[in-house]
Amino acid sequence: MATSSPKGGKEDGLEHDLNLAGRCLRGEKGAAETLREQCHLKLAGLLVMRGASALEAEGVLDEFWQDTFKPGVQGEPPLLAKYSRASSLLSWLSVFVTSRFLDLKQSGKPRGAGAPGEEVSAGRQQPVVKCGIHFPEEMCLANRCLLGEEGAVEALRERCHEKLLRKLISRGAQLAVAEEILADFWPDTFLPKRNDAPPLLAKYKGESPLLPYLTRAATNRLIDYMRRQELWADRPPDEAWCQALQVDVSAAPEDSLLELVRQALEKGFEVCAPQDLVRLRLVHGHGVTQRQIAAIWHCSEFVVCRRLGAAMANIRKAALAHIRQADPWLELTWEDILETCSSPNPGGATDQAAAQEEKA
Predict the structure, then answer these.
(1) Is 105 exposed, middle or buried (0-12, 13-18, 19+ CB in 10 A)?
(2) Residue 97, SS3?
(3) Which listed site, 33, 277, 319, 328, has its alpha carbon 20 to 30 Å from 136?
(4) Full-model pTM
């Protein structure tokens, strides 16, 4: 981890890390042991936070350290040869460790038990593409927050807080409500929750920038909060009822927004004629052109275009109407619905269900 001193501060810490990496590459006595001692326990703790058992974390790291110091089986340079001063050595290594872990987890292989040459080479040569970490710099910031690196949480808050606040207000929250939600939301992003669930950033996989990931999670909190307020309004405040509503926010469903959008789109599909749904799926799901659709239905491209446009308009109208009926206070646009469908799931039951369906 980058060390800091009263005089040198962060820059001296990064210079120290760069020198340590160079010493390891030159094979200086004790350098590799120093790096392992500096980073191993923290990287293992990060993997445990992301769902690995202690034994699995050790297995991943045992292979990873070999990959870090030694050339690959096909002559590729060791991982440390790629290090620069862009971030601390610990946070930089954490991206590759997370990448390796997510790759093994996704493939269903025992973590740390792959063929040494195969997994080491794959993990080093294409960790970002293979593991779905398309935004490694964002993953680095998320890991820095989880590792408790100095200034990381402040950097994330400074970048995202005002944008999250404006987004919650645009989606129907009063200013005081939005501020209250975010006050509880930020600690849950990087600290374990009260029910021992992992922090929100431990579920981040680098599939999108951090802002849309956090926006979706914060919107889930807003929906859960407002629905609880509606329950309070509809019931006299007797003691039993008050106790029943004193639920831990961290134990609430993680993706209320996705479930609401799913129900809304189902309502939209219900108002479409079956043939229109088939056309929409052929065009948007299978890449069939409107000209080919016109040939199949023996009509002009203009007719196909008009029918597709009308079907999308009906879906949009019915979906937004369902959201207004389900949560009248929530102000979602069609663009918000599309953004929710394309953004990564911030973990939870929905994510697990989707994974089970994919395996099935």
Answers:
(1) middle
(2) helix
(3) 33
(4) 0.70
